């Protein structure tokens, strides 16, 4: 994404700036432009731009790509820097405009503008990089070609131009592989190839072209798998290959999560598996190459001055070196030694196990069971090599069951050998005995001498002696195991082990049969037990016992004498006993209990194979018919229960997000969907970041039994501490349930189910408010409520509080207040509420606002407060009301008797319907029995066709495999022929190119020689002409001789120059020949390497074919051995006839259907009877506890009448006050009239004043009388309501007693039915939902509240506003005791107090609060009211009143 830096924002201390930042970054949807924002300070120093190169003529690059380049453009160099500057406007509403701007659509427009600027920046960078291409040459700048293509692709990706990015990445990848590779730069080339391949595959998956990604990865592996590099560091190549497969598997898996569809033959598991194989190769190479006793060299050759590498893939001791030979041989050796020593400390087994685990998860997801088993065996072997024998044994045990079922005896033997070593090294006696017994059995493919050794060790263990060490064990581990065995043998004593061999293949075979399918009652029953030992030596037995379905026969089937079994010889033991009379007509069967645990839902098919032979005589010839019978049993598995989780507040309101450090509830519901009752043994909660709000988390579902469709709930009170990582979501943990069927034995294992709890969204609240109040209130009784306000921010918060009036309550306390709360401190506010109505009433709403925190509102802060409370009536009633209620009670009793008679009639109708239901049940049973028989026959036909289909499928797979192999061979042959033809053409092209270069050089030399000769000839001609001219003139002989000598010397000079030129021509020809020979040598060397690699591949394929032939030969030998083994052919011990068995099966099915129908009928009838009784009792209880509508209507009318009277009086009082205010607001000294009527006006004014004063006095007198009458009526109504409540209580107790009596009678009948003889012991009464809520409610006490802090907060309020709010407060006689009490105390109380003074308050302009209304009319009314109050309080002037927070009679509501 494009990197944009925002500067000038203070997101920590400025709420507006924080809102702007959240608008850019928080909750970014997919439709918004892809931008990565980051806030930087104003004085941040950005990386300085280096001087750009204008020429690359003498520049030689030291590497392909620098290690910090990508990080620089992702996190350090922004594409755009946005500077925010805060303007100081004079508009008082400017702050509101700022907060609104952060939430409107201008943010989106800004983002689009930012995105366009970022696009322009990256486009400019791409053009800049492209402009360097014209300065590069392919001789010395091959690395720069790769670097520039990678940079262009990277900038295109940041520009969100993925198509061009993919194109340039592909070009860069091709250029990487065109580089000449040698040992010094092999790692750098592979590293860059891996980076670019990852980018290409990732973009292909994004473009929804997975086939292109897979093809690219295969090409990448084919090109790089042979580039091993240094032979001493071959493990590095294996590690690099493993990382490539792992990275591609992760990309593949991520694409699948985003919607890509994978198949069995192409899924991420194959790539994880291949990565694990390369990790195993890395481990083996490290063991071979790394020296065990070598010490780490000093100084460290891997240490660099900058702390890291300059370029990807280079060595630390020779950074920037690009030549073929290393610069320093000694440093090369020490560096290789340091890498080898570091490789010894790598946890190879952990890497291999992690990759194999990912592969197993993928193969399990795509239903590849055999691949999963194969990889689990490899994981077990790796755990064995890592000396974690417990996990190795667990994995191998899981896999062995599959291999036993599928009869892979060779694989089973190999796994058993490893498991035996693990059991020996763990000194696990029972496991060691089990594996020894199975390795001695017929399924083992070990040699006789190995079996003899194992048998001797088994006998030693049975004799309480330590066995000998297993071969191929680690010597140190074997020594430690020897001491463990000695300790175990010393402590074992006479311990006995019970081993269930039905899940294994032991070395002793056991068969049992009755001599006849049925016996008469006067004949003894004869039972034969055959034993055969498969071990190499004789075996001695001390006791043989047979367990039958009827336990009384077991005493006759015991042999306690010493018995010896010879190898390969069958021994027969006969038992006989007389049948019991109650077993006549029944079967005696061998029983065995099997526990099956299914990890997924769906049907499970069990196959039973029975082989037998029949001897018969036909025309005097003995004929033996060998037969077999296969029987399948299908069991359907279902989900036992469903678990639902929800988060609620302490008021049981659903939460979509959780506040930090505030208690909340975690509710879990377990709904049973099992047809059998489930026993929940225990449950637990494993928390990650949450903490429990209680002292200890205890299971609330311990030993709870759930039947079908029943639900059990559990509740936990949790608290989320503040997180330091800045995430707004956090993981909760896991919910563990241990359970089993109720019908299973107590010794059966428990099943533990793990449920991952959902993540929660966290939010921080600046202010936490909670209230302490009683659980209920009473009408016209004081109800104290204390509010705790806690500041959870790092700033001083101003809190504005106002209490809204309510029709259901009167209250005393501060109606409006403004506080300042320090960071981390708490403030308490006490209010006394006076309920006026009964029932669930809404408390007066508390409006809270934080001027300094615009993100919070009143609704957010008020959600932690209780909204409603239950108000009880006063205990008053009248005698007539009691008499009337008694008459109603008699009427209700008569109605109950009528209901009982109606229930009896309904019961008779139920019996008639039951008889009809019985007739229909018989018809349905017959039809169901016929359908079951048809179903059985159809299942057999389906099984036969399924087997035929499997056979055809296997033939098809074989043919398909053969065709695929032939196709691969043809492709390899074509590739080889193509490569040979290509090499021949390359050779021809090189020869022609060398000949062309040689001819061009000769032509150039001849031209140059011709030019030189021509120039020389011209010079000679001129000299000859000059000589002739001088000869003709007068010239001495001496001068002539000198001139001739000069000419000779010049000729010699010319000849020497020609000779030099020819030698230079010859040198150029030799250089050309040398270069052509050098290219020829390189080509021959490459051909040699290709031929060697081809030979190695042929040799590897030959070895693989030999191994495949060897495996096939082994399988063929095993098949022949199994064919010759008489044990696998079945035996003749069970000689029952097929037709009788089929007939008995049909009878069994018929009896099962009849039994099930009868059982359902019985359960239904019993359930209907019990339900009818419960309904009768419920009707009687409901009739008794039903409220009287007339009484409720009467109380409602009384309440509405009283409320109406109060409202009328309040209206009249307000009207009188307004009239008085209007009269008082008229000017007291009017201007004198211009006319002569001044005296008349003064007279009328005085008259009106007198009337007004009289009216005021009458109003005061009427107000006093009205309040006195109101108090009398309230006391009378309270007394009547108290009596009425007592009457209701007594009637409710009577009804409850009658209901309890009926329930006890039903319980007695139920117990009688339960303990009657020949009754089923199962109860089919459905249980209702069970809930346990461990909510710790700590009673609030005044002392505990006082201990939290003893600071006193002084709150200045306008006394005028307080008097206006409570106009009758000054008439209450409790003001005197308050002042008196305060005067008697020498010190203020330590509790939190509120100080009220008459100083001029600070006016808070807030139009949302009713107490701060700036209307002129109301101000005048307040002034008039204050003057009247001052006249009443002339004798009582109090500067400051301290109102204590304790609940006392002095500070109760004045309206009482």
Pick out its properties.
alpha+beta, flat, 1456 residues, disordered C terminus
Helix content: 40-55%
- The parts where pLDDT drops under 50 for at least 5 residues are 1128-1135, 1227-1239, 1317-1419, 1433-1456
Biggest sheet details: 5 strands, mixed
Structural class: alpha+beta
Mean pLDDT: 77
The count of β-strands is 37
Our count of helices gives 28
Q: What separation lies between the terminal Cα atoms? A: 69 Å
Shape: flat
Rg to the nearest angstrom?
Answer: 51 Å
DSSP strand (E) fraction? 15-25%
Describe the structure.
This protein has 1456 residues and is α+β, with helices and mostly antiparallel strands. Strands 13, 15, 17, 19 and 34 form a five-stranded mixed sheet that branches. α9 (234-257) runs antiparallel to α10 (268-289), α12 (348-365) runs antiparallel to α13 (369-385) and α14 packs antiparallel against α15. The longest helix is centred in the middle third of the chain and has 154 residues, at 879-1032. The protein is flat.
